[in-house]
Design brief:
About 50% of the residues lie in helices and about 15% in strands. The protein has two domains: about 180 residues, Glycogen Phosphorylase B (Rossmann fold), CATH 3.40.50; about 190 residues, 3-Layer(aba) Sandwich (Rossmann fold), CATH 3.40.50.2000. It contains 18 helices and 13 strands. The chain is elongated, with a radius of gyration of 22 Å. Helix 1 crosses helix 18. Helix 7 links the parallel strand 6 and strand 7. The chain is of the alpha/beta class. Strands 3-2-1-4-5-6-7 form a seven-stranded parallel beta sheet, sandwiched between helices. It has a six-stranded parallel beta sheet with strand order 10-9-8-11-12-13, sandwiched between helices.
Length: about 375
């Protein structure tokens, strides 16, 4: 069968490449045409456009690049018509993908499958109307999305979670060994580690890392180690007076061997929980208290971290917007490090999340369902 796949960012490239690999296992005659990245290209097929030419986030950025956006839409449509797929598979990236879904339904009228739901449960819930009209099958990776879509009378498939798969595979081959980690990275093994995960984007790092580094003053019996984003060099981190070790491409290793972690909100909060390392979640928002009030109006969920969203309760403390201060960060980190009962309660919460996510292989489960439904 012929699969046309659209992923518009780095995370989508990763998830789509894993799905393509599994589709080839289930369907030896699989052919691919796609918009995506290097990981997808490694699976074979024809690349139409690289996601780095598509990743325009936010209204202003989209408007500034409107010609490129419209060109990408045109290229995508023409490629779909030329390739004549048996199915179009969309991966997150809703603004672009829902427009393409509409085109597919109006022209070649083949099934449209969505792998990894847009976060319409957090904002832009109105998009459910388009999804119900344009998407034949939805494959979701967060367990609470089942109830969200059920509320809208739209049945979906929960297929497991790719982060869970990645962490499970890592743990099978990498037992916890702080001494070995320190030796490998030329770090002293005399003090326990506190991991600093400031994010992968420049603005995130600039906003979060300085406050994280301030914690050195209050916890002299611990050593702080930064998880470096692969897009940046050590020189980038040195501009923050970052006189602590920075390790690259070893985030799971670092977190697993740390006593605690300060984590900028994102997928890393879930990775840290699945590695069972106590954490505090932070998130800088311009505008402080005012931005926090606006968030309550616009965003429809009670938490920002995937950890708490999956648990449906506060397992980890979230210091967001005006709450992200040095004083509050110090207080929370002290509780995590020194209050045994507090640490224990967090770890029990992590076990609950692991149970909710389940054991199924996300990409393999999705591929099997896709092939099965297409054969019918």
């Amino acid at each position: 069968m012929k699969y046309f796949v659209i992923a518009g960012e780095a995370s989508g490239d990763l998830h789509a490449s894993n799905l393509m690999r599994e589709l080839k296992q289930k369907d030896p005659n699989a052919e691919f045409c796609f918009l995506g990245g290097d990981l997808m290209r490694a699976q074979g097929g024809t690349m139409v456009q690289h996601y780095r030419n598509m990743a325009f986030m936010g209204i202003i950025n989209v408007l500034l690049n409107i010609r490129k956006v419209l060109s990408n839409i045109k290229i995508c449509k023409e490629s779909i018509l030329t390739f004549s797929p048996d199915v179009v598979i969309l991966v997150d990236y809703p603004s672009f993908n829902l427009r393409i879904a509409k085109f597919v339904k109006e022209t070649i009228k083949v099934p449209v499958f969505y792998y990894i739901s847009p976060k319409i449960w957090a904002w832009k819930e109105y998009r459910i109307k388009s999804i119900k009209k344009l998407v034949d099958e939805m494959f979701c990776i967060l367990p609470f999305e089942v109830d969200f879509y059920k509320k809208h009378n739209y049945p979906i498939h929960y297929v497991g979670n790719p982060t869970m798969d990645s962490v499970r595979e890592f743990l099978q081959n990498n037992p916890r060994n702080p001494s070995q980690f320190c030796e490998k990275n030329n770090i002293s093994s005399q003090k326990p580690i506190i991991a600093l995960l400031a994010g992968s984007r420049k603005q995130e790092i600039v906003s979060c890392l300085p406050k994280m580094l301030k914690m050195k003053e209050f916890f002299p019996d611990f050593q702080f180690v930064v998880a470096g984003a692969p897009s940046y060099s050590i020189d980038f981190y040195n501009q923050f007076g970052c006189d602590v070790p920075v390790v690259f491409n070893q985030t799971f290793d670092l977190v697993q061997n740390a006593e605690a972690a300060i984590v900028n909100s994102g997928t890393a909060t879930l990775e840290t929980a699945l590695l069972k390392t106590p954490e505090v979640v932070v998130y800088h928002v311009f505008g402080g208290r005012l931005a926090s009030l606006l968030k309550k109006i616009v965003i429809r969920v009670p938490f920002v971290s995937l950890v708490n969203l999956i648990a449906t309760r506060e397992v980890v403390k979230e210091l967001v917007a005006h709450l992200f201060t040095e004083e509050r960060l110090q207080q929370e980190l002290q509780k995590i490090l020194l209050d045994k009962n507090y640490r224990s309660q967090q770890k029990l919460g992590f076990e609950d999340i692991i149970d909710k996510l389940g054991n199924q292989n996300c990409a393999a489960t999705t591929a099997e369902l896709i092939v099965e439904k297409l054969q019918k």
